[in-house]
Amino acid sequence: MLTFDECKKYHYEMWMWLSEHPGSDKIDWPGFDGINEHIPYLCFACYITSDGGKKLKDCLMCPIDWGVKPHDNAPCCDNFTLYDQWSMSCQSLEANLRMSDFSAYAEKKLKQEISSLAKAIANLEWTNKLEDQTT
Predict the structure, then answer these.
(1) Which of 19, 20, 38, 108 could staple 119 via S-S, CB 3.0–4.6 A?
(2) What domain count does the chain have?
(3) Domain residue limits at 111
């Protein structure tokens, strides 16, 4: 089972890799090759809230403050969170790359945006809410 600190480290490494590879998805991160655990949603924060991937996650215990009021839905996926913006930008890039008139300049700008969002996600602060409950 991965520790809180390992998950935080892997989260950072994955998102920094994604910032260097805009247009790639979380599943493409080569670091997953060395991890022998089920990582729900390919998210190390979800892993922490799901008792090591063994049960349904408790999003209220997410170690990341996504800047939205906590509720029973996944706060990371709420509109306008960094993750939502990153996901929508990746979808936009994928859709636009299929268009023949998508300019190299527009592609470069969108990839820069995706890279900046991934870096911001990598550097989000983590708080171990599960540990806070036991003390």
Answers:
(1) 19
(2) 1
(3) 4-134
